[in-house]
């Protein structure tokens, strides 16, 4: 399941190194990851080719941990299980604390770490979009884990929705979390189109997007095409953005300029907190 060749999200474009300076927080030790149903949700970027953070290993792919909800969710698993587990250990995150693994799509840089993760923690439920091959499901059950196929958009636990499988050559689902400030939409690679995903999340929940985070898949887009996508997202009212992974450096720079102080760094090791409910 390791990343290889050009069958993944970069579409044959080589890995690139981030040139921009980062201001990010590293969660300090295990205490930061204890407890559930908190006042805010916390997203920790565990795997990314963007913005290596001291002490963490970068690699092509994406994974993040979502905490503070009814259950703790691992969104995608990066390309390499050893790297994923090492980054989790470095951040004081126990794999056994994960209740749900949400897979966006079948590209190796998103599912590559799954087997090693389930070997450590077969108790997790794996949520995946309908269309994954039977052999993949068999491998999940082979590890003793439960698989849940999502064939349409809808809620899968308190506050959490899938867009359902969206198609564009490859089937992909995005994850949506309802918060006090609007929805948070997390994308793996956004192969079906980041604007299309954003629009379908808004339609599904009837709420505005507070934060759009993950891979936006704009590596091959021209500046003009990216500008059109940015303007579409702005017209949809997307308040904050945290693009990384397969967004591409040039597009990321355009997003940073367009959103200004509402641009959030989403590289490896970033921790992003979003309030879930009104304060006391
Ligand atoms: Zn992909
Ligand atoms: Zn990808």
Largest sheet: 7 strands, mixed
Q: Give the count of structural domains.
A: 1
Order of helices and strands: EEEHEHHEHEEEEEEEHEHEHE
Rough shape? globular
Number of strands: 15
Distance between the termini: 46 Å
Low-confidence stretches: 1-7, 11-31
Spell out which ligands are present. zinc ion
Structural Rg:
17 Å
Approximate strand percentage: 25-35%
- How many helix segments? 7
Helix content: 10-25%
Instruction: State mean pLDDT (0 to 100 scale).
Output: 89
The CATH superfamily turns out to be: Ribonuclease Z/Hydroxyacylglutathione hydrolase-like
CATH topology tier name: Metallo-beta-lactamase, Chain A
Give the C-level CATH assignment. Alpha Beta
- The side-by-side strand order for the widest beta sheet comes to 6-5-4-3-2-1-15
Write a structural description.
By secondary structure, the protein is α/β, with parallel strands linked by helices. It starts with 39 loop residues before the first strand and ends in a 5-residue tail after the last strand. The chain has a single domain (36-274), classed as Ribonuclease Z/Hydroxyacylglutathione hydrolase-like (Metallo-beta-lactamase, Chain A, 4-Layer Sandwich). It is built from 7 helices and 15 strands. The protein is globular, with a radius of gyration of 17 Å. The longest helix is centred in the C-terminal third of the chain and has 13 residues, at 223-235. It has helices at 81-90, 108-111, 114-120, 134-142, 194-205, 223-235, 249-259, and strands at 40-48, 62-67, 73-75, 100-102, 125-129, 146-150, 154-157, 160-162, 166-168, 170-172, 175-179, 182-187, 209-215, 240-244, 271-275. Strands 6-5-4-3-2-1-15 form a 7-stranded mixed sheet. Strands 7-8-11-12-13-14 form a 6-stranded mixed sheet. Strands 9-10 form a two-stranded antiparallel sheet. It binds zinc ion (2 copies). The site of one zinc ion has 6 residues, from loops.
């Amino acid at each position: 399941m390791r990343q290889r060749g050009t069958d993944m999200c970069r579409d044959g474009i080589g890995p690139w190194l981030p040139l921009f300076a980062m201001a990010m927080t590293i969660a300090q030790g295990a205490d930061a990851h204890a407890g559930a149903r908190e006042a805010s949700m916390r997203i920790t970027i565990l795997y990314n080719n963007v913005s290596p953070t001291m002490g963490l290993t970068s690699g092509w792919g994406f994974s993040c941990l979502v905490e503070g909800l009814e259950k703790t969710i691992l969104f995608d698993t990066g390309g390499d299980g050893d790297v994923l587990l090492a980054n989790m250990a470095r951040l004081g995150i126990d794999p056994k604390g994960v209740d749900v693994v949400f897979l966006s799509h079948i590209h190796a840089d998103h599912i590559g770490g799954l087997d090693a993760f389930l070997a450590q923690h077969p108790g997790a439920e794996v949520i995946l979009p309908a269309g994954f091959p039977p052999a993949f499901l068999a491998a999940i059950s082979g590890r003793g884990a439960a698989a849940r196929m999502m064939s349409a958009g809808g809620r899968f636990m308190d506050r959490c929705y899938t867009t359902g499988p969206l198609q564009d050559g490859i089937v992909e689902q995005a994850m949506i979390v309802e918060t006090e400030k609007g929805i948070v939409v997390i994308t793996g690679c956004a192969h079906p189109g980041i604007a299309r995903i954003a629009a379908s999340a808004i339609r599904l929940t009837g709420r505005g997007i507070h934060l759009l985070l993950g891979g936006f898949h704009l590596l091959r887009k021209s500046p003009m095409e990216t500008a059109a996508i940015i303007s579409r997202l702005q017209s949809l009212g997307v308040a904050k953005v945290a693009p990384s992974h397969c967004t591409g450096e040039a597009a990321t720079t355009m997003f940073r300029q367009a959103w200004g102080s509402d641009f959030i760094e989403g590289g490896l090791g970033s921790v992003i907190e979003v309030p879930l409910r009104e304060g006391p």
